[in-house]
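Support request, please re-run this one:
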Amino acid sequence: MILSSGTKKPKIHPSAYVAPTATISGDVTVGAGCAILHGAVITAEGAAVTIGSDIVVMEHAVIKASGGSATQFPVKIGDRCIIGPHAYVVGATIETGSMIGNGAAVYNGVALKAHTRVADGEVRLPAGDFIEAVFNIERSPDAAAKAAQAYAQFLRKSHAQDVVLDAHANKAPVRRSSGEEPPKQQTTEVDTVVDAMMLELQEMEHRRQEGLKKKPK
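Re-run finished. Output below.
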């Protein structure tokens, strides 16, 4: 499902694959060659999500940017990364070639260098007090309750104008040399490719049969 959030609409490269049960919402950019698998959620709530090329977001992973008037936590993921199944990435920067394991969590303000491996179930937290750093709420016995109340209000407001857009049309990839980006008009539907291959095979078989008829007995 592809949704706009207010005036912000996802920008998805034509060569990216988005599963029918995945959700992409708001100010999200998905680069070339990405694969967003079933049940994955990518949502921009007050800040942008930018995903590079050849990224795999596996089943039921969540990638979320967040931000309010006081703090901003965009998500930036470099090229050729894998976000494992049931992983949770929020407000973090992940550089090229990294892998986030099954059920791992990377939280607001964390920056991972290139080729980092986050193990299955591992949690990466920002420095200092989490509620203070993320929600801009001073430490107190009821800080978590205040954070929940403020966050619920923010989410209700930010998603109040969500609109379902037409589904992303998944396209077949076009062969290209390394680093070369195909223009949109070169992207071909899968069914069209298959039909063209069948026609070529039929034509080759026809020529072979004609050649056999012409051979002297």
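Residues 2-164 form a domain with the UDP N-Acetylglucosamine Acyltransferase; domain 1 fold (CATH 2.160.10.10). DSSP finds three helices and 21 strands in the chain.
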